[in-house]
Amino acid sequence: MLPFSAAADRNKDAILTTLKPILEGHRKLLEIGSGNGQHAVHMTAAIPGLVWQCSDLDENIEGIAIRLELEGDERTPPPLALDVSVSQWPLPARDDADAFDVMYTANTLHIMSFNHVEHFFARATETLHGQDGILCVYGPLKYGGKYTTPSNEAFDAQLKSWDPVSGIRDFEALDTLARKAGLVFDADHAMPANNQLVIWKRPG
């Protein structure tokens, strides 16, 4: 039986509705932390022409590969083993013809350490190709140190009880990292279940 994420299944249509016009004209997306590949299969079925490259930690690759083999197509290539904490990701350079013009991640930044979040943004500028490269981050956020809802505050406490280095991130901290990486804030979309979808772009 294929691994299944109820959260990924619940949020896939809302994310697709928001992402689809944003991704128009883009050709190759790198997903960081693909889980079990549900978003890759769902999004590529609805966005013709977009190649969706899954990646995750090595221990999750087998499950993703099985899903993509059964439900994917030529636009969902085999997943990459990728650890955001390493100093150089095993990817084409941004000036390579096969480079990525979109990076996307969902529900990952609050389950990794902030040091790993810093690596994530630093590698974005090395990964995104062209002046239309975009970075898309989905998940819960704080603003000015404040939670958007009591349920997010409770969720943050739960995360920290599991792992003290995890936790819901401040938008301002992420935006600072994005700017250091040469990206500019473009949009912040409110999503269901107290989540956000934030878009940064390489400046034109």
What does this structure look like?
The protein has six helices and ten strands. With 204 residues, the protein is α/β, with parallel strands linked by helices. The protein has one domain: Vaccinia Virus protein VP39 (Rossmann fold), CATH 3.40.50.150. It has a seven-stranded mixed sheet with strand order 3-2-1-4-5-10-9, with helices on both faces. Strand 1 (28-32), helix 2 (38-46) and strand 2 form a beta-alpha-beta unit. It is globular and about 40 Å long. The model has no long low-confidence stretch (mean pLDDT 94).
Secondary-structure topology with pairs:
Blueprint: H1 6-22, E1 28-32, H2 38-46, E2 51-56, H3 61-71, E3 80-81, E4 102-106, H4 114-127, E5 134-139, E6 141-143, E7 146-147, H5 150-162, E8 169-170, H6 171-180, E9 184-191, E10 195-201
Parallel strand pairs: 1-2, 1-4, 2-3, 4-5, 6-8
Antiparallel strand pairs: 5-10, 6-7, 9-10
Summary tags:
single chain, 204 residues, alpha/beta, Rossmann fold, 7-stranded mixed beta sheet, 6 helices, 10 strands, 23% strand, globular
Output the CATH homologous superfamily: Vaccinia Virus protein VP39
Number of helices in the DSSP assignment: 6
* Terminal CA distance: 45 Å
Helix proportion range: 25-40%
Strand order within the widest beta sheet: 3-2-1-4-5-10-9
Q: Would you identify the CATH architecture? A: 3-Layer(aba) Sandwich
